[in-house]
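Morning!

As promised:
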Amino acid sequence: MNALLEVDRVSKAFGGVIANRAVSLSVPAGSIVGLIGPNGSGKTTLFSSIVGSHPVDSGAVRFAGRDITRLRVGDIARLGLIRTFQQTRVYRGMSCVRNLEISAPLARSSVRSVFAPFSKEVTERAETLLDFVGLYAKRHLRAGSLSFGQQKLLEFAMALMSQPKMLLLDEPTAGINPTLINALLERLRLANTQFGITLLVIEHNMRAIMHLAGYLYCLAHGELIAAGTPDEIQHDPQVLEAYLGAH
Amino acid sequence: MSLRNLPSDSGRRASLVPHGATRIGIYVALGVLVLAAPFLFRGIVTQLAFLWLMILFALTWDILGGQMGYNSFGNILFFGLGCYAAAVVQRDTHLPYFVALAAGMGLSALVALVAAGVLGPLTLGMRGQYFAICTLGLSIAAADLFAGWEFVGAGSGIVPALYPGPVDERNRFFYYVLLALATLTFITLRLLYRTRFGAAINAIRDDEDKAEAMGLHTTRYKVAAWMIAALFLGLAGGPVAGLVGFVDPRDLAFAGATFGVWMVLMAVLGGKGTLWGPVIGAAIFHTTQELFWTYLFGWQRVAMGVLIVAIVVFFPLGIMGWLRARWPQWFGEVVDEAARPARADGAGIGDERAA
């Protein structure tokens, strides 16, 4: 199996609280993998460890065959590994189009392309992606004036705009209008099949993640307690115990 | 406050400035007025020249303060270095006046660029109030350093070369130099804010961690932004030294308590993070200040203090910021309900909507 992302026994503690204890997981190129677990089980911490937001205590992270454990956030992002946030992070004072345009990767890192307006192609692609997430009509509005759900969609479009190899999505359906969830899931699937983007998704919406992901990992108390297909996970006694408590 | 749904022809958006012939007419009238001003208002040419300096101050402060979200209280540093560099060239070379001035301004630009390029990576890693306080310290340190440095006249300052002509002519000459510099700054920033660079510094202002997470080289953008501000501030040093005829370390070059604070207030008054805001803010602030000196002499500092408090309390968004919050459609913030035109090559992916 050709793994795009490999997390090898990563541990992370904050003071005395162990957020991740020797967590290992592997995400094959082109797949959609889910990461579930009760609140406070260390899912978001694991994302932060992967993208270099904080140094890990031990373990290693490999992306596209390269050790990225010690790289910084920006360097990892430029390798094509982008994460989105549970609470939306968009450029609130800028229009939606600008939010997308600035998310486009710099084709050639030359001084001239930095001090030039965005090319027609970039603007065109920004508008296409805004249309893709249903925000085309609002493209001239400030991102900060959008609703939470719309900002979430915008952030997803920004991530796509950066043409990543892989996306780490932190609860993409949280806070989104239930009628929009199916449409969003469809777009996640399209991003995977059409653009070939590998996805690792944290999700609390079980129905959603069971349909979306082909393989799931479950964290509890910072430790990996189960891994398998959605069907296996749904019947795993340890997972049931973690979510419902011991009987 | 509702956003107006405008027809699909987005080219006809409501705008703050009239279009077509009226707009060109306004610009031509303004251009003629500023070019003729030294001859129309002979008594206040120096004050008018300082108006352009104030506009330059506010515009360059806004690059970091408004567009990038980094409140610098040390930008005066680059202006001071510019004053001294130009004055030293004029004093120590025996070139003709205008050649020495040009050479001095060249050195000023270089010194300011190098200073920003060296100090930028050291200070721009700090955020929020830490950056503000650090830059404040830098400008105070610079003033003390130059006030104790014999080579540049220490506390008694330095005198640049004397203008070879009558005082009226000198004032007019520097009026036009400062007008040209302020205009150059404005045009440069107008072009710059439309580029990827402009969008990047806005992104840093709105969410620097996000910008980093999206792979932007944030440090490079921040240092470049400060260097651009420093370039124009440094260039302004020479002409101002020539106009005033004397460079005092604390009252002119590194005048943090006056110029250093004013540049912040002018940008805030007009509207941080907008192109015209700093221009409007500087014009209003400078005019008000001159009126205070003329009509409230003795109380001018008290009046200035009251004005500053009023600006911060009643205009936290500034004039342009208030207009934008009140009438966003004037600034192009409109909902466009028209469907996206289909691409001829069918490359769009939006058609495959989920049910």
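Confidence is low (pLDDT under 50) at residues 1-13, 344-355 of chain B.

Hope this helps with the figure draft.
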